[in-house]
């Protein structure tokens, strides 16, 4: 009688399984123009603020990858730059991608917006790009949404400001005003200051078409700041031009989206909230200059997420400066939301055969 003993080699080998390989297909590639982006986002300001806050929560929980932005600069065009913001986000959004955003300030004198951008969304499973979206509107919307979120979160225990001042009055200032208005803010006084009289006049005309209280155009930056308990910085300054901490003696909230206007001494005299510490302390932002001056990060109070979760409290006897570097994960979240809405509406423009070599051996 022979007993059948297992072949040593066989028993050492992994058991053959009959599972079929996962079904992987190349997703269709779509292009979403600015008109569709704007149509989708208009009227959704509160929803976008909620989405931005949910994205901060995912980022704080570690469910994101958000490496440093890459700044492409040009020796022959020193004021211009193009920034790459690659990122990946988990949660229900679950998408990878990159924002590629140009800043050419000289465009403005020709009546063309300074910033232009595209956002690429990549499929989680195959890595294939599946959408290219016009992204200057997405970028402006997520920036305004994070400003509106900060205005709300950072004033809950300090009293709501009633006098707002816009320092720099381009497209971002307009979007921030729109988002604040759409999320329940109204102001008794609105101050405006810009080095360009044309910009200040254009912004004033825009404001007059909205339900705004008294509007004052300030020639002096000092007057604008002293007259405002909420100051929005949205200039294109490359280095500090506001240097006197005494202008902030009334302890305003500063929404500091342009990041390079304030001397480090003003940062050091304030409570400082950022969106992400490592991102914000780079690229010669004012908090970065403050770190270089002091050799430490002790002047940072915390992140906006820390405030949202009650981990930090804000003093009432100092200015509060919110410096958001602007995370690529926010662009991804808002971009994916636009993609989903356009898809749901059955209005996605797919580019047939965009990826053509889809069989490995032809
Ligand atoms: N932190 C972020 O996530 C984020 C996102 C988007 C944009 N931004 C920044 O917002 C800023 C504004 O963008 P935009 O698209 O509105 O630009 P824009 O060119 O449309 O407007 C900028 C305005 O600032 C004015 N200005 C320039 N220097 C000034 C100064 N020293 N004092 C007063 N006014 C001055 C200009 O005349 C112009 O009217 C940029 O610095 C941009 O990088 C930040």
From TrEMBL:
Q: Which UniProt keywords apply?
A: Oxidoreductase
Cited Pfam families = OCD_Mu_crystall (PF02423)
Gene Ontology MF: a single term: oxidoreductase activity, acting on the CH-NH2 group of donors, NAD or NADP as acceptor
Q: What is its EC number?
A: 1.4.1.1
Per the record, the domain of life is Bacteria
Stored InterPro entries: NAD(P)-bd_dom_sf, ODC_Mu_crystall, ODC_N, SbnB
- Region span, Disordered: 1-22
What is any one of the record's Gene Ontology cellular component terms? cytoplasm
Protein's GO biological process: siderophore biosynthetic process
* Top enzyme class: oxidoreductase
- Asked whether the UniProt record includes Lipoprotein among its keywords, one would answer no
Keyword Glycosyltransferase among UniProt keywords: no
Query: PANTHER family this protein is in?
Result: KETIMINE REDUCTASE MU-CRYSTALLIN
Protein name, per record: Alanine dehydrogenase
């Amino acid at each position: 009688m022979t007993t059948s003993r297992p072949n040593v080699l066989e028993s050492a080998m992994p058991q053959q399984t009959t599972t079929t390989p996962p079904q992987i297909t190349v997703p269709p590639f779509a292009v979403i123009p600015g008109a569709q982006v704007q149509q989708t986002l208009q009227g959704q300001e509160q929803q976008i603020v909620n989405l931005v806050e949910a994205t901060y929560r995912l980022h704080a929980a570690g469910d994101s990858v958000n490496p440093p932005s890459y700044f492409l600069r040009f020796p022959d065009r020193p004021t211009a730059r193009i920034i790459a913001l690659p990122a990946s986000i988990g949660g229900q959004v679950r998408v990878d991608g990159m924002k590629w955003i140009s800043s050419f300030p000289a465009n403005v004198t020709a009546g063309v917006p300074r910033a232009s951008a595209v956002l690429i969304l990549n499929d989680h499973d195959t890595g294939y790009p599946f959408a290219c979206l016009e992204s200057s509107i997405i970028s402006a919307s997520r920036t305004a949404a994070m400003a509106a979120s900060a205005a709300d979160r950072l004033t809950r225990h300090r009293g709501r400001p009633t006098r707002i001042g816009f320092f720099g009055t381009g497209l971002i200032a307009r979007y921030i005003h729109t988002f604040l208005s759409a999320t329940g803010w109204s102001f008794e006084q609105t101050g405006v200051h810009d080095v360009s009289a044309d910009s200040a006049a254009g912004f004033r005309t825009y404001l007059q078409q909205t339900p705004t209280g008294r509007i004052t155009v300030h020639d002096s930056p000092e007057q604008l700041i002293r007259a405002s308990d909420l100051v929005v910085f949205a200039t294109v300054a490359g280095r500090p031009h506001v240097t006197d901490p005494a202008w902030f003696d009334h302890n305003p909230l500063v929404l500091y989206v342009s990041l390079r206007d304030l001397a480090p001494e003003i940062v050091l005299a304030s409570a400082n909230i950022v969106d992400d510490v490592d991102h914000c302390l780079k690229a010669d932002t004012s908090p970065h200059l403050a770190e270089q001056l002091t050799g430490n990060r002790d002047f940072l109070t915390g992140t906006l997420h820390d405030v949202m979760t009650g981990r930090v409290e804000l003093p009432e006897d100092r200015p509060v400066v919110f410096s958001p570097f602007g995370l690529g994960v926010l662009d991804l979240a808002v971009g994916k939301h636009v993609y989903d809405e356009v898809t749901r509406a059955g209005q996605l423009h797919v580019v047939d055969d965009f990826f053509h070599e889809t069989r490995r051996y032809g």
